[in-house]
Amino acid sequence: MASAVSSIPAAPGEQAARHFGTAFEYETDCADVHEAMSGGLQDFVLLDVRGPALYGQGHVPGALNLPHGKIVEAKLKEYPTETLFVVYCAGPHCNGAHRGALRLARLGRPVKLMIGGITGWLDEGYQLAR
């Protein structure tokens, strides 16, 4: 008798590599964002897509606040079309980052989601700005 884990076989190596490799086209993590920002290699715009009140209570240092519902072309006009945006929200329990990423993608903007959001940032031991 197989466990729930092994009852469906794992994908073959090549197929799994495609799947997991593709994930990096859509997401990044808190450690990579922190390393880029603290190492002076920030080649993206970090957007906190939560509301202003939550942003004011604490956000990733250097993040701009643009709630996902307010992501429209007019708000992005100062950024070249090839600008990479990285979005985050409260954490894995929140779909705001996905909503923001979808809006940016529909506007034709390059976008990645910072998985973990604020929860992940704090779990890594990083500080928030206020």
Structure explained in plain terms:
With 130 residues, the protein is an alpha/beta fold. The protein has six helices and five strands, in the order αβαβαβαβαβα. It has a five-stranded parallel beta sheet with strand order 1-5-4-2-3. The longest helix has 14 residues, at 13-26.
Give me the strand/helix succession. HEHEHEHEHEH
Share of helical residues: 25-40%
Strand arrangement, largest sheet? 1-5-4-2-3
Q: Radius of gyration in whole Å, from Cα?
A: 17 Å
Anisotropy-based shape:
globular
Average pLDDT works out at 97
Class of secondary structure makeup? alpha/beta
Strand fraction band?
A: 5-15%
Q: What's the count of strands?
A: 5
Q: How far apart lie the N and C ends?
A: 53 Å
Number of helices: 6
Unreliable stretches covering 5 or more consecutive residues:
none
**Biggest β-sheet, characterized?**
5 strands, parallel
List the helices and strands and how they pair.
Blueprint lengths: L12 H14 E3 H9 L6 E4 L3 H6 L6 E2 L7 H4 L8 E4 L7 H11 L4 E5 L1 H7 L7
Parallel strand pairs: 1-5, 2-3, 2-4, 4-5
Compact overview of the structure:
The chain has 130 residues and is of the alpha/beta class. The protein is built from six helices and five strands.
Short key terms for the protein model shown above:
130 residues; alpha/beta; five-stranded parallel sheet; 5 strands; 14% strand
